[in-house]
Amino acid sequence: VDLVFALEFFARLASCPVKLGFLRHFYSIIDIAAMIPLLLRITMLVFNLDLHARKGALHFVMFCVGPFLRLLKVLRRFQAYQLFIRVARDTKDALQVLLMLFMLYVVFMSAGLYLLEDDPQ
């Protein structure tokens, strides 16, 4: 799967007339980042490393970050996702006001519960 995504990125890069502008685009940055697990797998094959024996940053990148980046690559093709991003961008100010009101509500309710609690721990 990673190889298909990498080939797709390089085909789009080869067909783009303005390569620097293409590489600065947000989706191109996601495409480049999505190729990191492929590079890690190739490195592990060359140096004969066992991924399952090592738990750490490499494991996190391969099994958490990699699938998330592939999901981002696939999501950009869906119209509903594009609509959601556009609506979120257009209603950013209203959402900030609602978030601030929610945070005030949480602070006042937690202070009220603290004052009404009989046996503090």
Description:
With 121 residues, the protein is mainly α. Helices cover 80% and strands 0% of the residues. The protein has seven helices and no strands. The chain has helices at 2-15, 19-24, 26-34, 36-47, 57-75, 79-90, 92-116. Helix 1 runs antiparallel to helix 3, helix 3 (26-34) packs across helix 5 and helix 4 packs antiparallel against helix 5. The N and C termini lie far apart (52 Å).
Task: Describe the structure concisely for a colleague.
With 121 residues, the chain is mainly α.
Q: What attributes does this structure have?
A:
121 residues; mainly alpha; 80% helix
- Terminal Cα separation, in Å? 52 Å
Structural class of the helices, strands and pairings? mainly alpha
Helix content: over 70%
Question: Uncertain runs with pLDDT below 50, 5 residues or more?
Answer: none
H/E series: HHHHHHH
Radius of gyration: 23 Å
> Biggest β-sheet, characterized?
none
Q: DSSP strand (E) fraction?
A: under 5%
Strand element count: 0
Tell me which oligomeric state these chains represent: single chain
- What best-fitting shape do the alpha-carbon axes yield? flat
Fold blueprint:
Elements (H helix, E strand, L loop, with lengths): L1 H14 L3 H6 L1 H9 L1 H12 L9 H19 L3 H12 L1 H25 L5
Helix pairs in contact: 1-3, 3-5, 4-5
